[in-house]
Amino acid sequence: MEPTNDDDHRANGSDHNHLAKRSKLSSSALVTDSEIRAEFAHHQSGIARINNGSFGSCPSSIIAAQKRWQLHFLQQPDDFFFNHLQKRILHSRTIIKDLINAEHVDEVSLVDNATTAAAIVLQHVGWAFAEGRFQKGDAVVMLHCAFQAVKKSIEAYVTRAGGSVIVVHLPFPLRSEEEIVAEFRKALAKGKANGKKVRLAIIDHITSMPCVVVPVRDLVKICREEGVERVFVDAAHAIGNVHVDVEEIGADFYVSNLHKWFFCPPSVAFLYCRKSPVSPDLHHPVVSHEYGNGLAIESAWIGTRDYSSQLVIPEVLEFINRFEGGIEGIRMRNHNAVVEMGQMLATAWGTALGCPPDMCPSMAMVGLPASLRILSDNDALNLRTRLRGHFGIEVPIHYQEIKDFQDGDGCVTGYVRISHQVYNTVDDYLKLKDAILQLVHEGVTCKMLSPE
């Protein structure tokens, strides 16, 4: 079915509240197990795909909807540009606004991914340093496990303009949220030493590697108490994975990808920017003819490109609402399943989870047997490659350095980061369990593994 004028009528917002809030369907309308298998039948056969966290996965029905929007554009690009595109993007933004409890749709922009959002925020901070509104040596605080692209954006925009960086080193494995809070307070104190100011704090809502849910609301509150000027929450994994309420969290900026845990095709993310006096100074790094019309409008047109991943958000929400409990039901079932599977693996391998279950989202870190001797990032990558190539398992491996030990004897220095999404089955995790046990039984160490 091709998009119709009804879609443009909905773009005016006449039914977005119904779409965003609907979560209860009759039992006959709920998605079945066979329908879930059909939606993800395009996954490569024979692969235990336990890594939804990296790239997400898009259902077949949403891929079909995306193709319809692509064709709609190609059939008559001028008509699509002048009469449909902006209304449809506004409709998608309005749905996200309701899902995350933003006050106004103007606070929500759609961008390609969290990397783009980080560039927008850090470009803005870099200009403040370069133009003298922030003093040289004032600080940006970030977690040590921040995504590499965020670190590079800080390098590109902030440090070259005279800002300094304070890194919060989080312990891992983690036993409680209090450990995160304590280290964060130390970093803020360091940033404020000698009369300097912390101009920006970057907080992950869910760290990527190692993976843990951060008490983001508490950290934002601490930032306000300590006079941190602006707070940017990098929540690349968040929507569809944890509850998101931007009013409750209270950050100035909040970004989450929609292609990781929200079933959108790559690539699309939302960037929430709380309305404030600095809002007009936020700009998309790709300058188009919409420059100066507000970030949301600038982001909605950055030149001729494929915008279909932004246009299918209403169809994605309809897909999500076919599951019992909608988005909240999906995330709770995924969380419970990944904790259960993580505990099963830890028991089989004689290890433990990397953090308490209530700090796991739909992902969990599970310790690997010490006998594998994961002693470097290269060892972790080689083990991941071996699992993919020889066992048909896709799962990330994390190397955790431990100081003051001899060659890793008896110490857990490697963790798998398992994900659970609606398409996963118990067999995926049993396959991983047995593969690791086989390597241990055969006396394999990572030193024996070589890239394929």
TrEMBL record:
Q: Name one GO molecular function term.
A: carbon-sulfur lyase activity
Which residues does the annotated region (Disordered) include? Answer: 1-26
Has UniProt tagged this entry with the keyword Ligase?
no
Q: Which domain of life is it from?
A: Eukaryota
Q: Which residues form the Aminotransferase class V domain?
A: 86-276
Q: Which UniProt keywords apply?
A: Pyridoxal phosphate
Compositionally biased intervals (Basic and acidic residues) = 1-18
Q: Which residues form a coiled coil?
A: none
Q: What is this protein called?
A: L-cysteine desulfhydrase-like
Gene symbol here is LOC107827141
